[in-house]
Structure formats: C-alpha cells, structure tokens
Amino acid sequence: MLAPNEILDSEKRNVERRDRDIAVAPPQQRKIIHIDMDAFYASVEQRDHPELRGKPVAVGGSRERGVVAAASYEARTFGVRSAMPSVTAKRNCPELIFMKPRFDVYKDVSRQIRSIFAEYTPIIEPLSLDEAYLDVTENLKGIASATQIAEDIRARIRTETGLTASAGVSYNKFLAKLASDYRKPDGLFVITPKMGPAFVEALQVGKFHGVGPATTTKMNRLGIETGLDLRAQTLAFLQRHFGKSGSYYYWISRGVDDRPVRPDRVRKSMGAENTFVEDLFTFAAARAALQPIIEKVWRYCESAGIRGRTVTLKVKYADFRQITRSRTGAALIATQAELARLVFALLGPLFPATKGIRLLGVTLSSLSEEQSGLDAQFSLSI
C-alpha cells in the first residue's frame, strides 16, 4: 500500500502528464466547404426565361457606358466577363443578350440557398449573394464526411432552386475556395491535408484568392510565378515587398490558413482600388479611371443589399505619398450616380496635380442594410 505522500506524488504526476498531453495535443482539423453558385445572376435569368437557355446572356446595362455584372457560361466562351464594359462584351459576342438585373429576385434565391446551408451548420460566412463558407467540422446532421455534406447541399440546391453550384472541400478557407474553382461549373473538388502543399505549389500566383492583377504583376517582376516560387521566399522578403499581406502570402504558399469561418461577420466598409500602369496627371484621366472602381463598389452594394453614408477617396502619388478625402452625409446613398457625384466632388480640389497619380480607390462605409424609400439626397456638405 502506498503512503499518503506517495499517493499525492502519484496523483500530481498524473495531473502533470494529463496537462502536458493536453498542451501538445493538435487542434481538431477543420472541415470547410466553400459553395459558389455557377454564373448566379445569369443562371437565374436563364431559369426564369427558358428561351434564354443555351444562349449567351449578360446581366447588366447594354448602353455604351454599361458594365457586365454577370455572364452565362455560353457568353464566357466568347471572352465575356463580369466588370467588362458592355460595348466590349457586345463586340466579343454580337449575339449577346442583355438582361436588366433583378436584385430582389437574386436576394430571394440567395435566402433560399442559405436556408439549406442552415440545416447543416450554423457556422456560415456569406461572402456575397452567391457564395459562402461553411464550417461543418461539427454539423447538425452528424455526418462525418464533409464531402458527403457538400454533395447533399449541391443536390438540394439543384432540386429546390433549379440552379447548379460548385463546391470546394478542404481543411481551411483558402484551399476550399481554390477547390470550388477547380471544376466549375457544377463541380465538386476536395483538397486533403496531404494534397494541400503540393496543390498550392503548382498554381500560378494569379489564381490565389487575395492576389489581384496588380499584385500578380509585382510578384512576376520579382520572379514569383507559382506557389512554389512564393514558398521559396522568406517571410522578411515578402513583408518588405508586400507589407502586412506578406505574412498571408508566406503561409498560404504552404497551404496554411488559420482564419475561422465567421458566421456573424459584419462588414464595416466596402472598397475597391486600382494601380495604373501609367501615372495619371489630369482630372479627366482620373475621373475616367475612377468610373469602373465606382461601378465595382456599387455592384457589391446592390448584390449585398446594403448602402452607406461615408465615402472615402484614396489617392497614391508616384512618390508613394498617400492621402484620403472623406465625407459623411445624413442619409444613405441611394444611387450609383450619387456615389459618383460625391467621389468626383472629392477628386476635383486635388487638381491641377503637381505629380502623377499611380493609384485611386473608393471606399463606402457606415454601411447598413438597404432600406425602402431612399429618397433623401446625400448631402455634399462637410
């Protein structure tokens, strides 16, 4: 029989061993699904107008200054893409059929799809009307396989909405989004933990979520063409050339992404910007360059059903000096024309410019859900 002090020592060792085991136990590996509807707006139009099925369709304005908001896969074979000027799209595809956006319909379908998601998990992070992340590590159906859940959801979407969705399944958000793009449209792809690093190293950096055209060009100039090239760089090198984003690029090149799926993410602002190949020196050139940026911001507002009160203009000069100009109104901005009018009012006093402008950006903040009766005009007073 053990003496009392020996019993205490034994229990102490057991506790220490248990605590040590807990400390080194690896965290539970996540099971993440990224669902992305296929050509969502255009597919809804083809569903509701059978005569459009199999034909090249663009949702957006057909006028000279219009922009394509979405294109059917039939239109994409002609090089028609979202954010493309309508005149360019029509030139690429003379048979292109333009449909006026019906955001109220798209929102209703989106709510229907999200109700399907909610039957499997409460951990849903919508990115827009047509895509979302789902964390199904522990799910409401008790299904062990994330792939099976993704298959079930895709089948439910097809049956209940008449639309198709692509799904990516992986152990983090970055890879799940890459996977959903891999077999579009109407596809499912899984990237396992063993596949992750090798899958990333073979990709062109321009395919990485979070690496836009300007960053792709900069990486290419630095000799970084693929995920393998990116992984070969040190953290210090990437932070020196890409600032805060350098750490993100360092880890995703290794297939590592610890960001959780955030079910109640509240977006505080929406912005878009563009870095130009050649510096801008005139008001007319800057105004023209801002137009597609404004349209991109407004398209997000329309698709997400939100409006904002504060507009910020971002300007970066050729010497990398950066300034911002903002105004906040008493009412929500009701139209794209109002947003453009305010942005140009902020831009005007910056001219004549003494140096070239290399980047322009527009951010809309103080966001809230779209309200009916947005009749009050946005005040230009400071």
Notes on the protein architecture:
With 382 residues, this protein is an alpha+beta fold. Among the domains are: 197-252, 5' to 3' exonuclease, C-terminal subdomain (DNA polymerase, domain 1), CATH 1.10.150.20; 269-368, 2-Layer Sandwich (Dna Ligase, domain 1). Helices cover 40% and strands 20% of the residues. It has helices at residues 4-24, 40-48, 73-76, 86-92, 103-118, 146-161, 173-182, 196-201, 213-221, 227-231, 235-242, 245-252, 283-304, 336-347; strands at residues 32-37, 57-60, 68-71, 97-99, 124-128, 131-135, 165-170, 188-190, 269-280, 306-307, 310-317, 322-328, 357-365, 368-369. The chain has a five-stranded mixed β-sheet. Strands 9-13-11-12 form a four-stranded antiparallel β-sheet. Strand 11 and strand 12 form a beta hairpin. Helix 5 (103-118) runs antiparallel to helix 6, helix 11 (235-242) packs across helix 12 (245-252) and helix 13 packs antiparallel against helix 14. The longest helix has 22 residues, at 283-304. The termini are far apart. The relative contact order is 0.09. Mean pLDDT is 86; it is low at 1-26 and 371-382.
